[in-house]
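pls ignore typos typing on phone
S-adenosylmethionine + seq
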Amino acid sequence: MAYKFVDNYRERGARKKLVEHLASRGITDQRVLKAIGKVPRHFFFDETFWNQAYKDIAFPIGDGQTISQPYTVSYQSELLHINKGDKVLEIGTGSGYQTCILMELGADVYTIERQESIYRHTIRVLPGMGYPANFFFGDGSMGIAAHAPYDKIIVTAGAPFVPEILLKQLKVGGILVIPVGDEHSQTMVTVIRINDTEFEKFELDTFRFVPLVGDQAW
Ligand code: SAM
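k done
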């Protein structure tokens, strides 16, 4: 598909309103709000659906993909506390919208997707938008050991449990953000690596994600 990278006053205005909406829903990290205000979400949509691009909803965007809800993207991004230069593993590239937000926050992103058509689509489109992440194809429930350890790990699909193998790929002081639950609803979980053997776990709000499918997943 040929993409028209047109970002005019209408889209910029809609993006500003989305930022205000996310702030009103409780997103307080100004850097996250700034990133949402910068990434043109309509670039991920067919032009016919540009009027849907700045609503706070997930949306099917072809190739069997959905683009995540802006609130969910903001919520997970805020929990990661990204510092400039952080090495971040993202499991579930999907549309790549979350990838762009992480990159706007200054992260060096390693992102993995298990569905080949989605992987091929995103690896083609994202660099053209100015977001040349490190793209991988495969089962991210095992992490990517070859590039570990990571400062932060984000899982963008619903897991049945926290995979041990991901905890092992976190640096000391690192943060894992992962939705955990059944197929109907998941609790957002953050795990902080305290030292070589100790981890601290927090359970937060409830969301609904597509399932994480793989060896250490469903
Ligand atoms: N974060 C994306 C965005 O910003 O639009 C949306 C991610 S979508 C909700 C979840 C993605 O995780 C899907 O593309 C799915 O194919 C992928 N996925 C599921 N299990 C996976 C696994 N084990 N490894 C890698 N990707 C996986």
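The CA atoms of residues 114 and 138 lie 5 Å apart. Helices lie at 9-24, 30-38, 70-80, 97-104, 116-129, 164-168. more later
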